[in-house]
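Hi there. Long-time user, first ticket. I'm pasting a complex I've been working with (about 692 residues overall). I'd like to know whether the download I got is complete or cut off, because the file seemed smaller than I expected. Thanks.
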Amino acid sequence: MTSELAKLRELLLGPEQAAIEALRERFDDPKLFAEAVGSVLAEAIRLRASGDPRFKQLLERIVEDVIRNSVRRNPAILTDALFPIISGAVRKSVAAALRGMMESIDQLVEQGFSRRAFKWRIEAFRTGRPFGEIVLLRSTLYRVEQVFLIHRNTGLLLSQRAADSAVHRDADLIAAMMTAIQDFVTDSFGKQEGDDLESFRVGECAVWIESSPNAVLAGVVRGVAPARLRRVFQGALERICSEQAREIEEFDGDTACFRESERHLDSCLLGRLSAAEAPGRVRWPWVLAACVSVLGVILWSVPVLRERSRWSQYLNRLKEEPGIVLTETGRDGGNYYVSGLRDPLAADPAALLRESGIDGEQVRFQWEPYVSLQPGLAAVRRMEVSKTAIEKQAVRFPVNSAKISVAQAETITGLVSHIRDLLESARVVARPVLVEVIGHADFSGGETHNNRLAVQRAGAVFAALIGEGLPASQIRARGAGSSEPLRSGDSELDKEFNRSVSFRVLFPK
Amino acid sequence: MNPTVQPSNAIQKKVCMVGAFAVGKTSLVKRFVESIFDERYHTTIGVKIDRKYLTVKGRDVNLVLWDLAGDDELAQLRMSHLRGASGYILVADGSRPATLDKAIELQSRVESTLGSVPFVLALNKSDLVHEWRIGADAAAALERSGWTIFSTSAKVGSGVEHLFETLAAKMLESTEKQVSDAT
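Hi, the file is complete. Here it is re-exported in full:
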């Protein structure tokens, strides 16, 4: 019965029993159990990690502990493992630093000896900042016009920003072509894994490229940018790569999620305008100080300059003045002095000084008299001679007569000659001159009669002179009657002198 | 063919075009794509980039086409240019059987670099059907092994638009499959 039951059980449940036995064996045998778990472990971890963030944190902690223990036990293992990566990274970083320094030095040398450089040195001295910093600040005029974020593996454009908000329509093509060029350059010239094209330049435009393992940041830079701009690009790329590591790694063509990175790209759109355009650079205290000093210089120099200008004008006038020869002029203490030769007929230097507006007290004169042969002065001298000669003459008349006697004709001839000389000399110095013909009568006879007689006598001489060809406009005749006697006595001789015509030379103003 | 405005939310895909020398790769797509680069890029850096916008299954797709220089004894295909491609177009000349052999060889080389990604074969110059030297059975054999083959003509433009659409659809399917596999 029992055996039959056992047989029946084996018939009914035999396969299940065998399966249970096999399962038990698998669980009990550590080797088989490890194999079973091992076959699903990777998938199990992946599923768990994707759904549960705590599991990831736990794994992180375990891995960190493992690494820490490994380093503590034998640092050589990890050093050997990391060496290829670290040496490359260090080499790249050092090369970048050196290149940045070289670029700075190039710029410094180029700009170190210009006029601007002198200005910058003053600024460095004034502000206490290093000269190099001032040069970088003032000299580099550039603008980052566009920035592209490119997926490194596919060359597809993840995001782009432009300074003037007009994004490039063909940026996707440019990004791909840039990647192709980068591949080409790396294939052709790159010696080491990770050697990348870092920049290329066309005219005043350059493309600066920063690479990370999964993404590339390319900036189109116009002008000469400072080397530190590269650090800005590096920083932006690092931030993007750490914030969107997963999106970049799993990129399948959908770029929508990369809008988040636009702010980092925007931070790369830097630029510096020229010093003249840069706002807020004016330093008012300096401008004010400059204005005050300029004003002070003007206030001090205007009277001085005006006085000097007057003095030099005065000296020029003296030099041009006929009959004056300057031998020495100058300034002695606060006063001026003038020495020289002066013709007595020459203009009065003191009067000219008053005309020029210079204080007479300030000037000391020392003149030696001399006779100038200057044509103007010679004419004046002749004029004086003629005047004296003319005024010495008198034309005599018989008693109660206005008729010029034959004996007086010679006197008239001499007079005409003197008057001609006088007019000629006056013409040379352009001086107006007038010869007055004055008729006289003696005291005998009535006053009315005498007056008429005197006018008649003057008229007779006037007519005689005009008759000799002298200009009527420069000769004037008048009768003085007996009121201007040439002699005051009452003798016959006195009377004879007073029956006459006398002459005076006038220089009207 | 008309200039298209790039939709900002278009899916971007890198597509490579490969083929033997002088199979008409460039002229095949010339009338269907937008380009800003000169033909000379081929001979200088070995690649020329074009762009093709499409709408497939209601999605805007921007294909960035890497037209790689022809592969022959003189110019080696730069395998680095293939990196990251989501799909590729093989081009062969229907009148030169050797170019089909080359395409088959290239397919295995590309697959070893890119892995299994969607691709299509364009048997070009279909307007010269009477000059065809490739037998229907050869093409049928390839189709049986999973290839998608188009007869195209750069001259009359037949088949080209359809070729792009088919490849784009395949790539989108492939992406969706990867996404569903991952979850």
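A couple of notes from our side: Chain A touches chain B through 25 residues (CB under 8 Å). The domain at 375-506 of chain A is CATH 3.30.1330.60 (60s Ribosomal Protein L30; Chain: A;).
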